[in-house]
Specification:
Chain lengths: ~90, ~270
């Protein structure tokens, strides 16, 4: 994945910048720290390298996923978004 | 010293292309940033230096890197995208890149990204016209959205961190520990609107996972490549020169040759 992929928040703790996000069927930890909240399960975001970069509407997310579906979207694309952000 | 298991090499410093691929692709895969979900399988292939259809299937699941390997191979007449020369060209750099040509790279960008980026595609294509080559540093500096976020005070710090760790960087070993190397390297900086390499500083990188490493022994003074917080490989003088050259090329592209650097921040 190179330009970002839509995801849907499925779980987020109160006041947390980390959310569990469904990305094409794979649930990943994604940082929301670069955007303003509030956030709720069901919100859509555009993700890259483990960070949410933009908030999306459901329609925008659906349109974007349609593009992927027309292309070469695979489970590996979904895996390409998860968090590398915090070095050990 | 604790016992550390290391994989065999075909000759000192020489491994098969698929194993070289693992050495560079494992770090982002370990974080879940690239490739198939199961990073342990990839690691075991690298640690055991085993090459089979299963490893090739894992490599094909790197949606970022694999199309570049296919492009380099097809444009240069190499049959196998995991040929060592091709893998080296993408991650480190070598003369195969100079033989690819702008049109095949442009066609590849068009096929992969035009539909996804819509009207923004013209901005992405600028980097091809400006001399971009299918090297990992091109992907990081010219395709990733993070360059476009460097001017945003809130996102600057994370953007620079992602860019610095996602590029393959080089450094010289100053200390060898059981599971880590202490390395002197030059960090990526963003000053006065330009990406550049700063003064050398010391960093510590990982070399084993649970006592198992992907690369045989290191020595103080070795030049090494690094990806995220992991060491990838020892570098020969030729490889070091190539990695520096192609990294600087794409820093020049993004600093001086683009009207809209980092313009792609979202799907079209």
């Amino acid at each position: 994945m190179c330009l970002g992929i839509p995801g849907r928040i499925v779980e987020i703790g109160p006041g947390s910048d980390l959310a569990r996000v469904d990305v094409a069927g794979v649930v990943r930890d994604i940082s929301l720290g670069l955007l303003d909240g509030p956030w709720a399960p069901g919100d859509y975001i555009l993700i890259h390298s483990g960070f949410a970069l933009e908030r999306m509407t459901a329609e925008e997310a659906r349109d974007a996923l349609t593009v992927f579906d027309d292309g070469d979207m695979t489970s590996a694309d979904a895996a390409d978004v998860a968090d590398p952000a915090v070095p050990r | 010293m604790t016992a550390t298991r290391m994989p065999p090499e075909l000759a000192p410093g020489v491994v098969a292309g698929p194993i070289m691929f693992v050495r560079y692709a494992f770090p982002p895969n370990y974080h879940g940033a690239c490739g198939p979900p199961d990073s342990q399988s990839l690691f075991e292939y690298g640690a055991g230096a085993v090459v089979d259809a299963g490893l090739r299937d894992l490599a094909r699941q790197f949606a970022g890197a694999w199309p570049y390997l296919e492009l380099i191979a097809s444009a240069t007449g190499v049959a196998d995208p995991l040929d060592r020369r091709v893998v080296e060209a993408y991650w480190v750099g070598n003369r195969l890149l100079d033989a690819v040509g702008a049109r095949p790279l442009g066609d590849s960008m068009d096929e992969r990204f035009r539909l996804r980026t819509g009207r923004q595609f013209v901005n992405l294509a600028e980097a091809v016209v400006a001399g971009g080559m299918p090297h990992h540093s091109y992907h990081v500096f010219c395709i990733y959205p993070w360059v476009g976020l460097l001017g945003d005070d809130r996102r600057y710090e994370q953007a620079l961190m992602v860019l610095d760790r996602c590029r393959v960087r080089w450094g010289q070993v100053r200390q060898v520990r059981d599971d880590q190397l202490v390395v002197e390297s030059r960090p990526l900086l963003f000053e006065h609107g330009r990406l550049l390499l700063g003064a050398p500083r010391i960093e510590t990188v990982e070399r084993t996972l649970n006592g198992v490493g992907l690369v045989p022994e290191f020595a103080v003074g070795d030049w090494v490549s690094m990806h995220w917080e992991w060491v990838c490989d020892r570098l020969t003088p030729r490889q070091l020169s190539a990695l520096r050259h192609y990294t600087r090329l794409h820093l020049d592209v993004v600093n001086d040759r683009l009207d809209h650097p980092g313009a792609i921040t979202a799907l079209g």
